[in-house]
Write a structure and sequence with these properties.
By secondary structure, the chain is an alpha/beta fold. It has 26 helices and ten strands. Among the domains are: 62 residues, no CATH class; 285 residues, Alpha-Beta Barrel (TIM Barrel), CATH 3.20.20. Strands 3-4-5-6-7-8-9-10 form an eight-stranded parallel beta barrel, surrounded by five helices. A two-stranded antiparallel sheet has the order 1-2. Helix 1 runs parallel beside helix 5 and helix 14 packs antiparallel against helix 26. The termini are far apart.
């Protein structure tokens, strides 16, 4: 390996420094726990000429319009890559000596400016200096030092902001604050915790006592009374704050924020094209489909506790999911009437931080929809997901399932008109995957359709029809007579919640639904499969796609739901292995494995709030 390529290899490993050693060189296997000076297989490693770093944030494959992209490695693409000759890049003529001497005038000048920016203490200027230094190929060791300085500045600025707001929180004065009550309580707890981690232990005790006293006042804010400040004694809260679980959560939060910063760094561009690394396929349907994902990663680990760790952790999860390239995201499930839960708190965090709601979806039942409608109005959520049960259910309010859908759709149509959203919100699959978030869409999920039809193994729904099948088909026809339904409802979704359905059942149900909701009439079909004895939930997505489905509605990893379910990443990996090029073109696939590793501890922690 020549000097230039050794530099690029060092630079790539430097980009992984700080990720806990999870990243490795795709060729030599060298990890990035410390910024290395030289690849231990430097004479053989060809990273400088095209091998991607596994898990490198920001990496993408070439082939997506308007972006410089990098292809996934074997593990990132999901399985073995087809045998390919090593790419032969254009190489500069290498000098016979001094291969590691990068002391050009441009580099020296950029390095001096970078060091000056590090001393200046301005995060924005330092970030710009780092980009210029990378372009000038400044030494990797200096870049590592600059990145660490930038992270320190971001951390210090967060502490300064917390300190500046402290005066506003003493006392909390909940009713006279523009900050949502739940967020103020969370921030107060974080501030108290910071005091306990420093020499300001006495200050933390005083602030904790003051918050508890305020929560016990007769005129205290309702949510403050319901919080830990109102329910526990100061000594008990302090014990919880210093407990290993809470300290672990603070560590997870800090590492996630650092990871998000690293994700925004540019990745490594390599010469492989999407077509050259996608396996060949003879199946036209699977090869040409633009797989659609409605992400459920934030929604699946739901809790009905008013307070806990989950609100802000859901918010951090959202930042990762968006960086993966998903555009349609289920953001809240309003199934708890007027109860204040993390399902509402994440919306408060988004509004508080000024996040866009494009593509966000609110989930609720069509019968008992008061909380869902309130969330859509209050937080400007532009899309709705109606969870419809056809049989009696303890989860949803009992209602006439035909009429309740029409009533909900008509009400949402009026609200979306008031919000100035498109009256005909249909998007093609290419638009869905091209970064266009949904606006004014309604998705209708037939929660228990297989149970309602009493679908048995081997049935096709094309022979003699059962009474319940005829009843369902009559409902479909009734819904489609509604102008609002035809315009607003763009997706028909289904699932089988017991885990009893075989993957072939999803093919049968999809084929039957597609007959009643054809794509030419602007309907997408997405499926969601729960894990069961057969463990065929991930095969269900492919079977459905073969029979007319557009994709899946599920979380990134199976563990997001306590019972387990089909994974959107496994579905995408299966599609890629079956010859679908659009997977690599539409999503940030090379970054997704590292993102998933960071999601796993958060999703496990989301289900255990204190």
């Amino acid at each position: 390996m020549g000097g230039q390529e050794r530099f690029e290899h060092r630079q790539a490993l430097e980009g992984l420094h700080g990720l806990g050693g999870l990243g490795r060189c795709g060729t030599c296997g060298e990890g990035a726990r410390e910024p290395p000076k030289r690849c231990r297989s430097a004479d053989a490693c060809e990273l400088g000429s095209g091998t991607i770093m596994q898990g490198l944030p920001g990496a993408r494959c070439e082939g997506r319009e308007g972006a410089q992209e990098s292809p996934p490695t074997d593990h990132e693409a999901g399985g073995a890559r087809p045998s390919l000759p090593a790419p032969t890049p254009e190489r500069r003529t290498e000098a016979p000596v001094a291969q590691d001497d990068f002391g050009s005038p441009a580099e020296s000048e950029a390095e001096e400016r970078l060091k000056a920016a590090m001393k200046g203490g301005d995060a924005e200027k330092l970030s710009l200096a780092i980009q210029a230094a990378k372009a000038a190929k400044v030494r990797a060791e200096v870049l590592v030092e600059a990145h660490e300085a930038l992270l320190r500045l971001h951390k210090d600025s967060t502490k300064s902001a917390t300190s500046a707001m402290a005066s506003l929180r003493r006392p909390l004065n909940m009713d006279r604050s523009d900050i949502p009550a739940g967020i103020r309580i969370c921030e107060a707890l974080d501030e108290i915790y910071e005091c306990f981690q420093t020499s300001k232990d006495a200050t933390g005790d005083k602030l904790l006592k003051a918050c508890c006293e305020e929560a016990r006042q007769p005129a205290a804010h309702t949510r403050l009374k319901q919080s830990v400040f109102g329910l526990l004694e100061p000594e008990e809260i302090k014990e919880f704050l210093l407990a290993p679980d809470h300290q672990m959560w603070m560590e997870i939060k800090e590492r996630t924020e650092r990871f998000l910063h690293l994700l925004d760094e540019p990745g490594i561009r390599v010469p492989w094209k999407v077509q050259s690394i996608t396996p060949e396929s003879g199946c036209h349907v699977l090869r040409t489909l633009r797989p659609v994902i409605m992400d459920q990663t934030i929604r699946e680990p739901a809790t009905n506790t008013p307070f806990g760790h989950t609100g802000f952790m859901k918010y951090l999860t959202l930042q990762i999911i968006r960086r993966m390239g998903f555009n349609d995201i289920a953001i809240t499930g309003q199934y708890y009437a007027s109860s204040y839960t993390p399902e509402t708190q994440i919306l408060e965090w988004m509004k508080y931080n000024g996040d866009s709601m494009d593509g966000m979806v609110a989930m609720f039942g069509p019968g008992d929809r008061v909380a869902g409608i309130h969330a859509i109005r209050n937080f400007d959520i532009p899309n709705a997901f109606l969870d419809l049960t056809l049989k009696a259910s303890i989860r949803f309010k009992d209602a006439n399932f035909v009429e309740s859908v029409l009533e909900a759709v008509n009400e949402l149509d009026r609200i979306f008109r008031e919000m100035k959203l498109p009256e005909d919100p249909w998007r093609s699959d290419a638009e869905v995957n091209g970064g266009v978030g949904g606006k004014g869409e309604i998705s209708l999920n037939l929660v228990d359709l297989m149970e309602f039809l009493d679908l048995q193994p081997g049935e096709t729904l094309e022979e003699e029809k059962k009474p319940q099948q005829l009843r369902a088909e009559e409902a479909f026809a009734r819904w489609k007579k509604s102008d609002a339904f035809r315009r607003r409802v763009v997706a028909i979704l289904t699932e089988e919640g017991r885990g009893c359905a075989n993957y072939t059942d999803y093919g049968v149900i999809t084929r039957w639904l597609r007959k009643h909701f054809p794509e030419k009439e602007k309907y997408r079909i997405l499926i969601h499969a729960h894990a069961g004895d057969g463990n065929t939930q991930d095969a269900a997505g492919i079977e459905a796609a073969l029979n007319g489905a557009n994709g899946v509605w599920s979380a990134v990893i199976p563990q997001a739901a306590q019972g387990g379910h089909n994974s959107s990443l496994v579905f995408l990996d299966n599609m890629f292995q079956l010859g679908n090029e659009n997977v690599l073109k539409d999503l940030a696939i090379p970054s997704i494995p590292m993102c998933s590793l960071h999601l796993l501890p958060k999703l496990q922690h989301l289900r255990h709030p204190w």
